[in-house]
């Protein structure tokens, strides 16, 4: 049942939560690149797979303690009312999204990866059309076409060197990640209407972490601890970009639709590229990358014009 808050307008604290989440998610791309490099340097067999449990197990343990100590009743109520929905959301956001992003980052740059993930608003819209039966408009089709053109520029010219089959494969794998994130957002929308965002986020992450325990590789923790920036990147990803970031992202879902919230994803590559160049030093500036990014963002904006002029569904 819709809550009174579901018909409210977004307030300052909702936009503050979105802004903080965008900054954390943007810096997650270069941080993952650093961690994968540390694992590869220590000859870990499958870095993209092995890093997923390293990132999420600490978060799941924190959420488990919070759920048992302070949120026990609401956690049980959520599991009783939405068991399948919350389980699917957890599988989408932990193994689904992260395996695709990590596997792609083994072949492509963080800036390219973040631009591909920036198609999440369009994928959210398309999935909402299929699941909720909404009608697509001409301007949205135009936006999808523009964004796809920008994606081609990013993938073929934006990486600064000759495109290989491995890069194209990495780009295609990464393209599945925003679909996973879109499903996570859509699945949690009804849950957030009757439960606090922290509870929904905690339960989804805990459930999604269980299957990735099978991906743990011996020696992976030591590899991160020995890398110069490995420990800092690991802590930032687990505590900042995951525990805090996921929770902050679900807060605005009480008052806006998943499609409207997904619009803010196209700010992530702007922050990610700047951070990768100036803060993390995992990437160098490339004019084609900048051009492709502008085209992608323009397409996403065109596809979503007017969303915030309509009231959010209850």
Q: Please, how many helices?
A: 14
| Largest sheet entry | none
Number of folding domains? 1
> Mind telling me the C-alpha Rg?
19 Å
Helix content: over 70%
How would you summarize what this structure contains?
This protein has about 325 residues and is mainly alpha-helical. The chain contains 14 helices and no strands.
Distinctive features:
0% strand, disordered N terminus, mainly alpha, 14 helices, 314 residues
How would you describe this structure to a colleague?
This protein has 314 residues and is an all-alpha fold. It has one domain (4-309). Helix content is 75%, strand content 0%. The chain contains 14 helices and no strands. Helix 1 packs across helix 10 (220-226) and helix 4 packs across helix 9 (197-212). The termini are close together.
Secondary-structure topology with pairs:
Blueprint: H1 12-41, H2 47-69, H3 72-81, H4 83-105, H5 110-117, H6 120-132, H7 138-157, H8 165-192, H9 197-212, H10 220-226, H11 230-250, H12 258-262, H13 268-280, H14 287-303
């Amino acid at each position: 049942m819709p809550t009174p808050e579901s018909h409210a307008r977004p307030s300052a604290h909702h936009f503050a939560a979105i802004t903080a989440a965008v900054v954390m998610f943007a810096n997650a791309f270069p941080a993952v690149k650093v961690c994968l490099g540390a694992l590869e340097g220590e000859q870990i067999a499958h870095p993209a797979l092995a890093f997923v449990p390293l990132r999420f197990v600490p978060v799941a343990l924190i959420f488990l303690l919070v759920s048992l100590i302070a949120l026990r009743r609401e956690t049980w109520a959520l599991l009783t009312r939405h068991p399948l929905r919350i389980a699917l959301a957890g599988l989408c956001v932990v193994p689904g999204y992260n395996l695709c992003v990590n596997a792609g980052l083994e072949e492509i740059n963080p800036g390219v990866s973040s631009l591909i993930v920036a198609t999440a608003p369009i994928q959210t819209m398309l999935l909402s059309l299929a699941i909720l039966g909404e009608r697509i408009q001409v301007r949205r089709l135009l936006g999808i076409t523009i964004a796809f053109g920008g994606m081609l520029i990013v993938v073929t010219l934006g990486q600064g060197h000759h495109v290989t089959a491995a890069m194209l494969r990495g780009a295609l794998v990464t393209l599945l990640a925003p679909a996973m994130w879109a499903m996570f957002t859509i699945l949690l929308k009804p849950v957030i209407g009757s439960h606090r965002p922290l509870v929904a986020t905690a339960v989804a992450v805990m459930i999604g972490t269980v299957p990735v325990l099978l991906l743990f590789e011996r020696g992976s923790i030591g590899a991160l601890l020995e890398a110069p920036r490995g420990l800092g990147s690991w802590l930032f990803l687990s505590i900042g970009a995951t525990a805090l970031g996921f929770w902050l992202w679900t807060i605005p879902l009480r008052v806006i639709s998943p499609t409207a919230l997904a619009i803010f994803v196209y700010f992530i590559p702007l922050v990610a590229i700047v951070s990768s160049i100036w803060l993390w030093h995992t990437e160098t500036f490339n004019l084609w990358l900048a051009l492709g990014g502008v085209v992608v963002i323009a397409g996403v904006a065109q596809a979503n014009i007017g969303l915030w002029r309509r009231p959010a569904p209850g």
